[in-house]
Amino acid sequence: MPGDLKTHTLLLHDDKAKKGFMKGYPLTNYVVKLDVTGLKCELCGMDIDGLESIMDHLENEHKKVIHRDIKNHILPFKFDGDSLNCALCPKSYARFKLLQEHMNVHYRNFVCDICHAPFVNRRTLHSHLGRHKQGDFSCDFCPKIFDTQGKKLCHEKFVHIGDHRRNKCAHCGERFTNYAKKNEHMVEVHGAEPLVLKCLACDKTFSRRDRLSRHIKRDHLLERKNECPHCDMKFYGKKELDMHMAKHTGAKPYKCDVCLKAYGRKNTLREHLRIHADDRRFKCDKCGQAFVQKCSWKNHMRSKHDEAV
């Protein structure tokens, strides 16, 4: 477990030994995973939030020379129990390997010319480039053949090896495809305390870091990267853009099996199917009349009871 490794390092390796961990490694392979939990300036004792902040502090307050003109190979993370949290975004991981793979997103020291994927050091870039080589790559477990090594490895991992289920429960050994599903299992099966993540900008709480991150980007930062090519509308997610595009294309791929009516959105079809199921979930609390669709209930409340809802 990451927590056990941290305890081992603190107890059995002094500062001199830690400084020599990467000694002899060429710069192409160089990477340092730095725990910034409870980071503090040793010169003045001030608590510091992160790596960039402490470099600013050392430069401005103590007049230390920090060489920022070289590529940064220091990957900051924080401990939260047995999870490893990225210090630059809300994501968390159970293993150092997964954290290091993720950190490439934040460090564009070396970029692939083919797919533009970023990497911390040159060695990981060179390793990645092998995935783009064209040829015939046979699966080691079945007769399938792939045109790139990357597709072959991805197929073997997900279909045969099952390495996508990396997150292991510490109590029963069951494995999960992601950290969030493991946490849900720990709460439901083993009675662990549920993770409660509060948004600092509003009162909403979340049980998963990815949902909190999505909420902040979509609702507070108003991130809208998906632009409609036909109008000025912009959307947070591609799924929202695809739903909107039905207005322009006129495509109606979702068809009712009962009456054969077609719709441009899956949600619209789902609402329509309630008509056939006589699902009257919208009930008037004044007279008891119930409706299949919300718009019908709103019209009823306005016309019969003079109440806007």
TrEMBL record:
SMART domains recorded: ZnF_C2H2
Domain of life: Eukaryota
Protein localization: Nucleus
Chief location bin: nucleus
Record domain C2H2-type: where: 84-106, 137-165, 167-195, 197-225, 226-253, 254-281, 282-309
One Pfam match: zf-C2H2
Protein keywords: Metal-binding, Nucleus, Repeat, Zinc, Zinc-finger
Protein name: C2H2-type domain-containing protein
